[in-house]
TrEMBL record:
The keyword Transmembrane helix applies. One of its GO terms (cellular component) is plasma membrane. InterPro entries: Band7/mec-2_domain, Band_7, Band_7/SPFH_dom_sf, Band_7/stomatin-like_CS, Stomatin_HflK_fam. It is a single-pass membrane protein. Residues 364-414 are annotated as: Disordered. Residues 369-378 have a biased composition (Low complexity). Keywords: Membrane, Transmembrane, Transmembrane helix. It is found in: Membrane. This is SPFH domain, Band 7 family protein. Belongs to the band 7/mec-2 family. SUPFAM superfamilies: Band 7/SPFH domain. The lineage of its organism: Bacteria, Bacillati, Actinomycetota, Actinomycetes, Mycobacteriales.
Amino acid sequence: MIELAVLLIFLVLILLLVVKSIALIPQGEAAVIERLGKYTRTVSGGITILVPFIDRVRAKVDTRERVVSFPPQAVITQDNLTVAIDTVVTFQINDPARAIYGVDNYIVGVEQISTATLRDVVGGMTLEETLTSREVINRRLRGELDAATTKWGLRISRVELKAIDPPPSIQQSMEKQMKADREKRATILAAEGQREADIKTAEGEKQAKILAAEGEKHAAILAAEAERQAMILRAEGERAAKYLKAQGEARSIQKVNAAIKSAQLTPEVLAYQYLEKLPKMAEGSANKMWLVPSQFGDSLEQFARSMANKDEDGVFRYEPATVTEETKEMAAQENVDEWFNTESDPEIAAAVAAANAVANKPVEEDPGAALAAKTAAARDNSSDIPSLESPHASVPAQFPVPQFDQAPPTEPQQ
């Protein structure tokens, strides 16, 4: 029994020695090894052989990147307002031995340094700057912490301000201020919108009035131009009509004179015609009495003596004058088919078509230049219009006037 007990004790000692000589370090952690109370080495990830009862694991350190959130810290700003700021620090242990031997508690050290640095940074800023300068604060906190914790074997990778909470009264004031600013911006935007709308409306009305005035101006110009052209055409038509009427009366007189001469009438025929017309002259309602002069025969005799020749028998006989060929041609019947032609003159039709084209032409962009051009053209045209006061004025080409080759011959009185 004693031997068995000794064997069991021996086996327990061997098992204890094996346990003490082997250390298992998980991945992502590092172990600080001491030998007889003095640092010897740092091991990580795997099985480590130790000298039993001489070597020991002082501490295991997590070498992964860690995120630590610190509770809110009361910080006084430059304008004497107390704000609560909580921070989040992201760090990683690069040297486990320094983290164990360089500082008692590196987490507390990081918290205290971040709090002190935060108070120093925020103390030089106003509340407004603090709320709008998160990036500046984060960058300064990271620089200060990284410089202070390098000797502890830590690397500060990121520092963030999680929240900045001003006092409730300040928050209410800020909310009121923000609400007032938003209402102010809304009022300004509404006023600017109304102003822009009024400006656009006024500009639209201005353009509409300008266009309406230009349209009325163009219409008045075109109406005046049309009235002017119409008056010119009417004057030319009246002048041509009077000229044609005078030419026609002159031609009719020449025609009657030529017909009378060609007929070679005698005084007897004229006397007969005179006597034949006497009853008709007496048919007037105002003619109550008609007297034939007693010396009417003597008058005819005197007329015969002056216009006739006395023959051998002592009788006065009228011998008509010799009719020339020109008088016969003038007394001949003319072709009057064209007198009743109702077709329009091609030149007049062309003038009407040109007037329609001008009326349908769109209004020019520059009415002043167009009016100047029209005035110059009208002045040029008016120089071609003959004066009605001139006795030698010619009839325009659009009103053809028949011309006679020569005036009818006149017979000398005998």
